[in-house]
Write a structure and sequence with these properties.
globular; 43% helix; alpha/beta; 9 helices; 211 residues
Length: 211
């Protein structure tokens, strides 16, 4: 199958497979059938086989999946073996929490720079990186060529920053602002993180349980 035509729902499930398989490996499990994995993940065996067949399958009839091999294959598909250079925009309270509590290397990224406009923040060390003034962004990007940006800025600042970053070659955004970069720039990859949305979905589920 042409990987360019793999559905977003399949891609969305891959990290979950990766996480569940990693937990099984830690418990000493070495192989698993699609039926067993389906029970643990509340999916169907058919769904799992269809998802993995998009990338070549990896299972053996009568044996199931070799967990260590499948973890490696999914990790490669997700690009975890080739860390993408990334920068952080906005190193206030949210930015600090994100920078210091995420193992970026584990998830396929290498944080190489951080920028802010607040003089009280510029010069601080965050996750082993010195926060630079935003005025240094262009020179830094031209020299180091990051492909991803983690946007921890207010929504009012996001549009101009996104335009600048795209001009400088950034092609992917982990976006904590409430500005939807992808609407104006469908050519770039965006993952929007809206904590409020998740809470509203939880509220709906609680109020509709058993209906």
């Amino acid at each position: 199958m042409d990987k360019g035509h793999i559905s977003a729902s399949v891609i969305k499930r891959l990290p979950r497979y990766y996480r569940f398989l990693g937990e099984l490996k830690k418990k000493g499990v070495t192989r698993i059938s699609s039926a067993e994995l389906a029970r643990k993940m509340n999916l169907t065996a058919s769904q799992i086989r269809q998802d993995l067949n998009c990338f070549g399958g990896f299972g053996q009839q009568g044996y199931g999946y070799n967990i260590e091999m499948l973890i490696a294959e999914i990790g490669q598909i997700l690009g975890l073996t080739r860390p993408t250079k990334a920068i952080m925009l906005g190193v206030g309270k949210l930015g600090v929490v994100v920078a210091e509590n995420m193992n970026f290397e584990r998830y396929g990224f290498s944080l190489i720079g951080a920028f802010d406009i607040d003089d009280e923040i510029v010069g601080r060390y965050v996750a082993g990186i010195t926060v630079q003034n935003l005025s240094e962004l262009e020179a830094f990007c031209k020299k180091n060529r990051p492909a991803a940006a983690f946007m921890c800025v207010p929504s009012a600042a996001a549009p101009e920053l996104a335009e600048k970053l795209i001009e400088l070659g950034v092609t992917g955004f982990w976006n904590f602002s409430h500005y939807d970069i992808g609407i104006k720039h469908p050519e770039v990859s965006v993952e929007n993180v809206h904590f409020g949305d998740t809470l509203m979905r939880l509220s709906y589920k609680i109020k509709n349980q058993g209906k």
